[in-house]
Design goal:
The chain is mainly beta and 886 residues long. Helices cover 1% and strands 17% of the residues. A two-stranded antiparallel sheet has the order 1-2.
Length: 886
């Protein structure tokens, strides 16, 4: 055998011998290597690992683990040596045989291979085909994760947390953060409010500022335009100017005459008045209504019967009875009536129906009305006051019951015949038997005694009173309780109940009413000031100082703390933006969340929706058949609820509450009603005070107004005169006018500049810049000026207008001067020497053209140049700071 053959034989032998961990195994007996080899074809393994794979039934990297069950997670194949390839999935597990992945795709991946998802669902949808709807309440947007449906939109203001639940913690204005410890950084805004969580500013920008950061707005819109790029048109109808705020579009011009309010709505004149301030009286005689056009005064009411034409002149043509028409040629058709007369133009019958007939056509009446009712459908109520019965004729309503005692005549008027004291009966011949009484007067019809019993006598017959009442009791059998409030003792007179104890401190008068302090004061001598912050009125208890005024909107509780839950009356919704729709109710209050009305129905309305009550009892009666008498003492009228008998009439003056008890509460000036909730309607008066119960005005008329309704006074005194015949003289010093009130002589002219107060004394107070008025509480309105200073008394601006603005109100200057001219009428010549142009600012005259060559500086002065030195090179030297420099 050659050397080459020997080497090949050796190589064949070596490659057919099994190995273990780099060692060659004995092919006859594998145990000589320590462990059996399970590599494919018994190939050599490197580093202890089979390089060619395992024999069937064995697995793992070193082929030493027998396959006895399913593959481990993440592996697959007959020998479990393959690794699952399951990227972009929530699990790396795959089928143990095929290697197919079984885990769901991660969010943002889709399809059998979990490729990136390029399909986008519309906002509010999710799912493989976007068929599912996102459930994301209380969020700015209903967007959610396309795969899982998890909500991604931010919570609405007032909601917080992963589920956007209502946020019950409220930071004060200007604060934010988990404990409200951080201060909002919101300059140049109307309010410093910001988002409670993020601190993002929420208040609107101040006028003159714009953008998300409220930066100064450098763009000026032309008159009548506003908004971004000035593309929006100002909506300023009924105003003297179409100018509006550049950012919000809010109109700034004053309302035209006859218009008022924030939106310049027409002034609602009372009936019978017209003119820009409703100062004129409609002249509409011979009409059914004195209503006229509020601007022109043209009458709009129909003419009264017997009058005709545009001016309602008397109709001079009269038809004979039973005739009508232009020439009276038509015959009136008026059967079953007491008269055959009819309306001259239309022929409508005017006579009453005969008894037993009813309706517009006087048909036979077959209906029987209940007692107290009459008319075609018995809807009318018999007006039979002062009678023993409310019955009346079913057709005419004429009363049929007898007069009550003390009333007489066909209309049951009060009996004006008076018997002398101690007499009664027909012709006053009977003598009153009224012993043991303070008066011998008796009822003139029945003889019943009316005078009170003398002291120590009691009962209907005024018998001697032998009982002694305990303290605080009086009356027959001492059943009456002494009503002696606000007194040092509850003792009262045993018979009459009159209190005998002295009034407590802070109370005075026979009824020990609270001593009246001025509004905002309390104490025995009214020396203390009420501390009633966050309230509509600074009213407090005259004795204790306890505040009684209602809290301002947004405040609640006995101390009027900020209200974080309750909407103001008449509002509801998440931000109280909705108005309660509650007509025909005593109060417009409603449920804060649902808007369901909670106030009681107004009188005359009933049911859950407060619909009109169509059945009415006569005044003073109630019940199913109006058989019960209302028990309503101390009231203007004895009217009561027709079902329950609850009194509905207003309390008499000096009484208040549901039972009309004596009223001990005093309303502030300008308020009236049971809880002082109503505002007195008292125009043209010195004070808006009115009667606390009825609202009748009590204040004196303003100067130049007179009469019970304070109408304009048409008599005018010469300036400086007053009195009934203008005979008195008034000296009104330090005023712009010597005019005075024609009735009282009080000076009415405004104080001259530098004088102030009711007597126009010299003004020694200096307001800070931008303030004016009494106590300097008013803010100067001096827009478009170089200074916000204004007159301390009148508020008239004194600063010059900014460039580009002109006139007394510094409005935008729309006039353009020719080149070389400036001034209000362009009459002044620009002084601009040494310039390339003679143009100057139209208002100030400041030169705007560039300096000519060799001139420099704001005034275009000549440039100073040093001599140039020429050597082998040219070296220029200039003058700077009085020195020659390169």
């Amino acid at each position: 055998m050659t050397m080459l053959a020997s080497l090949l034989l050796t190589l064949v032998v070596l490659t057919s011998i099994p190995v273990r961990h780099g060692q060659v195994c004995d092919p006859e007996s594998f145990t000589k290597c320590g462990d059996e080899c399970h590599c494919v074809d018994r190939m050599r393994c490197g580093g202890g690992l089979c390089e060619g794979g395992c024999q069937d039934g064995w697995t793992n990297n070193d082929c030493q683990q027998a396959v006895t069950g399913p593959c481990l997670d993440g592996m697959y194949g007959s020998k479990c040596q393959e690794t699952c390839n399951c990227s972009n999935r929530q699990s790396t597990i795959c089928d143990k045989t095929t290697g197919a992945c079984t885990g769901q795709c991660n969010p943002g991946y889709t399809g059998p291979d979990c490729q990136p998802d390029t399909v986008t669902c519309p906002v509010g949808r999710y799912g493989q085909t976007c068929q599912d709807i996102c459930n994301c309440p209380n969020r700015v947007a209903a967007s959610c994760d396309k795969t899982t449906g998890a909500c991604t939109g931010q919570c609405n203001p007032g909601y917080t947390g992963p589920d956007c639940q209502p946020d019950t913690v409220t930071c004060p204005v200007g604060r934010y953060g988990q404990t409200c410890q951080t201060i909002c950084n919101c300059p140049n805004r109307v309010a410093a409010s910001c988002d409670k969580t993020t601190g993002a500013c929420t208040g609107q920008c101040n006028p003159g500022y714009t953008g998300p950061d409220c930066q100064p707005d450098t763009v000026t819109c032309p008159v009548g335009r506003y908004g971004q790029k000035c593309q929006a048109i100002c909506n300023c109808q009924n105003r003297q100017s179409t100018i509006c705020e550049k950012t919000t579009g809010a109109c700034t011009g004053q309302c035209n005459p006859g218009y008022t309010g924030q939106d310049c709505q027409p002034v609602p004149c009372p009936v019978g008045k017209y003119g820009s301030t409703c100062q004129n009286t409609c002249n509409c005689p011979n009409r059914e209504s004195a209503i006229c056009d509020k601007t022109t005064g043209a009458c709009t009411g129909q003419c009264n019967p017997g009058y005709t034409g545009p001016d309602c002149q008397p109709d001079t043509v009269t038809c004979p009875v039973g005739r009508y028409g232009q020439t009276c040629e038509d015959i009136c058709n008026c059967q079953n009536r007491q008269s055959s007369t009819c309306e001259k133009t239309s022929g409508a019958c005017t006579g009453l129906c005969n008894p037993g007939f009813t309706g517009p056509d006087c048909q036979l009446d077959t209906v029987t009305c209940l007692a107290g009712r009459y008319g075609q459908t018995c809807q009318a109520i018999c007006n039979c006051q002062n009678r023993q019965s409310v019955a009346c004729d079913k057709t005419t309503g004429a009363c049929t019951g007898q007069c009550s005692p003390g009333y007489t005549g066909p209309d049951c008027q009060p009996d004006t015949v008076t018997c002398p004291v101690g007499r009664y009966g027909q012709k006053c011949q009977a003598i009153c038997n009224c012993q043991n009484r303070q008066s011998t007067i008796c009822d003139k019809t029945t003889g019943a005694c009316t005078g009170q019993c003398n002291p120590d006598y009691t009962g209907p017959d005024c018998q001697p009173d032998t009982v002694t009442c305990p303290v605080g009791r009086y009356g027959q059998k001492c059943q009456g309780i002494c009503n002696c409030q606000n007194r040092q003792s509850t003792i009262c007179e045993r018979t009459t109940g009159a209190c005998t104890g002295q009034c407590n401190p802070g109370y005075a008068g026979p009824d020990c009413q609270p001593a009246t302090c001025p509004v905002g004061k309390y104490g025995s001598t009214c020396q203390n000031t009420c501390n009633c912050q966050n309230r509509q009125l600074a009213i407090c208890d005259k004795t204790t100082g306890a505040c009684t005024g209602q809290c301002n909107p947004g405040y609640t509780g006995p101390d009027c703390q900020p209200d974080t839950v309750t909407c103001p009356v008449g509002r509801y919704g998440q931000t109280c933006q909705n108005i309660c729709n509650c007509p025909n109710r005593v109060a417009a209050s409603c449920d804060k969340t649902s808007g369901a009305c909670t106030g009681q129905c107004s009188p005359g309305y009933t049911g859950p929706d407060c619909q009109p009550d169509t059945v009415t009892c006569p005044v003073g009666r109630y019940g199913q058949t109006c058989q019960n008498i209302c028990n309503c003492p101390n009231r203007v009228a004895a009217s009561c609820d027709k079902t329950s008998g609850a009194c509905t009439g207003q309390c008499n003056t000096g009484y208040t509450g549901p039972d009309c008890q004596p009223d001990t509460v005093t309303c502030p000036v300008g308020r009236y009603g049971q809880t002082c909730q109503n505002i007195c309607n008292c125009p043209n008066r010195v004070a808006a005070s009115c009667d606390k119960t009825s609202g009748a005005c009590t204040g004196q008329c303003n100067p130049d107004y007179t009469g019970p309704d304070c109408q304009p006074d048409t008599v005018t005194c010469p300036v400086g005169r007053y009195g009934q015949t203008c005979q008195n003289t008034r000296n009104c010093q330090n005023r712009q006018s010597s005019a005075c009130d024609k009735t009282f002589g009080a000076c009415t002219g405004q104080c001259s500049p530098g004088y102030t107060g009711p007597d126009c004394q010299p003004d020694t107070v200096t307001c800070p810049v931008g303030r004016y008025g009494q106590k300097c509480q008013a803010i100067c309105n001096c827009q478009n000026r170089q200074s916000t200073i204004c007159d301390k008394t009148t508020g008239a601006c004194t600063g010059q207008c900014n460039p580009g603005y002109t006139g007394p109100d510094c409005q935008p200057d729309t006039v353009t001067c020719p080149a070389g001219r400036y001034g209000q009428t362009c009459q002044t010549i620009c002084n601009c020497p040494n310039r390339q142009s003679s143009a100057c600012d139209k208002t100030s005259g400041a030169c705007t053209g560039r300096c000519s060559p060799v001139f420099t500086g704001p005034d275009c002065q000549p440039i100073k140049v040093c001599l140039s030195v020429y050597l082998s090179i040219s070296l220029s030297v200039y003058f700077k700071n009085n020195l020659c420099v390169q």
